[in-house]
Predict the structure.
Amino acid sequence: MSASAIPFALRGDFIELDKLLKATALAGSGGEARHFIAEGQVRVDGQVEQRKTAKIRAGQVVEFNGERIEVQAPA
């Protein structure tokens, strides 16, 4: 099963992981996003990431709940 890819263009240098999940509608709220991260359900570049405010930068891939977010540089 291959995950679908969601492209996400940054507006600045980075986005915090919890805000990224909320911005892509994979979490309904920031609190929900932080819960998923704390539970170890989110991977960044293939590794479990439990820092809720980890800085996600262009070129990184976030995976959660069968979805894959490809973070891109600002247009």
